Amino acid sequence: MKIVLLGPPGAGKGTQAVRLAQKLGLVHLSTGDLFRAHIKNQTPLGRKVKGLMDAGQLVPDDVTWQLVAQRIAEDDCAGGYILDGFPRTIRQAELLGEQETLDAVIDIEVDGDVLMHRLCGRRVCVACGAPYHTSHYTGDTCTRCGAALMQRDDDRPETVKSRLAVYEAQTAPLIAYYRERGLLRPVDGAQETENVFAEILRLLGVA
Ligand code: AMP
Questions:
Q1: Cβ-contact 31, 68 below 8 angstroms
Q2: Residue positions annotated with a catalytic role
Q3: 207: pLDDT confidence band, cut at 50, 70 and 90?
Q4: Can you spell out the DSSP letters for 47-103?
Q5: In a mutational test of the pocket of ligand 1, which residue from 4, 15, 57, 59 has the highest number of ligand atoms less than 8 Å from its CB?
Q6: In ligand 1, which atom is closest to the CA atom of 31?
Q7: pLDDT tens, 15-59?
Q8: Using an 8 Å Cβ cutoff, are 125 and 132 in contact?
């Protein structure tokens, strides 16, 4: 199965992608995570994309596609994958479509004010990546591994606003693009994580 998870930043794509990958035995491919790993390892690509990411802007299509094309060509992706955060522009969708046949595009829908709240309060463990939210947990260390929690640079309010504007301008047109191709499966992302997951499984016909 080749699945795309579409939706604005903060819709819960990452959370659902991890669970789906586990349940269906698919590779979870997050372009945001790939870029963050390059930044952490201070690679030339990492240095190139850091400024754009910190400002909430998109990395150029050709750079992003190169990274994705390389990754999906690896052996473990032959059994299927979940794309989380890609494509984010019509051009990226075209590049992907020239090479791959998708099974479904799950569109996780959430209102803008809910997204602001979710993203600005989001914290993540520096060591194991476990996600937290300040409205559920006010500690500053990870309850699983004890490492420090941090706020992603791009989860600061001003950057979140830019990311949501970029989503509306550049990514939201993909909804119509995939609807026209009969691939779009909308899900209400404001529900509890469990319910969103159950609905996605139902839409994929694997519930
Ligand atoms: P994410 O973790 O998916 O929210 O992505 C974090 C940041 O990585 C985005 O704000 C962009 O700067 C960059 N990024 C991730 N995926 C893409 C993509 N498909 N195209 C361009 N930039 C991306």
A1: yes
A2: 13, 88, 122, 152, 163
A3: confident
A4: HHHHHHHHTTPPPPHHHHHHHHHHHHTSGGGGG-EEEES---SHHHHHHHHHH---S
A5: 59
A6: 16
A7: 999 999 999 999 999 999 999 999 999 999 999 999 999 988 999
A8: yes
